[in-house]
Amino acid sequence: MAQGWTTELDRAGVLLWRGEQGLPGGPQWLAAFWQTITASGAGTPRALVAGLALGAVLLARRWREAALLAVTVLSAPTLNAAMKLLFARPRPALVPYLAPADGLAFPSGHASGSAAIYLAVALALGQLSGRTRSLVLLALIWSALVAFSRVWLGVHWPSDVLAGWVLGIGWTLTIRAMGSRA
Fold it and tell me: Is the model's pTM score more than 0.85?
């Protein structure tokens, strides 16, 4: 991926949270906190949450909601993987990583996956509970925390996570819009 106008902002965003020798400032528990948040955006926790939500939606016999949730959960990681191959952007090499990370950086899979899947879950469960606004707000806040954690841990540029977050939200809303026309 060509470096553009975001280069200096990305660099500043990664270094903002780091002190001497590239280590983060603040209390030691802070790293464990952000590592826990980032873990919630990984594939297994997302799949578990989505599976439980899908089960609830199926038990309620909400077939359309179940289909929309399943399509989003199955397609979002594929879209992200295709985008990573298209842009082929490496991860930051400015600071020590505080979480396991490999592969390409743009867009962030944790950010796009948590935004897409947790938003899809919120929308599906919101249809069952009548609490759509609260659940959507919770999904957006949680996925934003996952996105931020990736930068704080040094494994992504800020533009990686912003793009991933927007991609995940956009993909979920696109699937929902296509489903409402069917």
Answer: yes
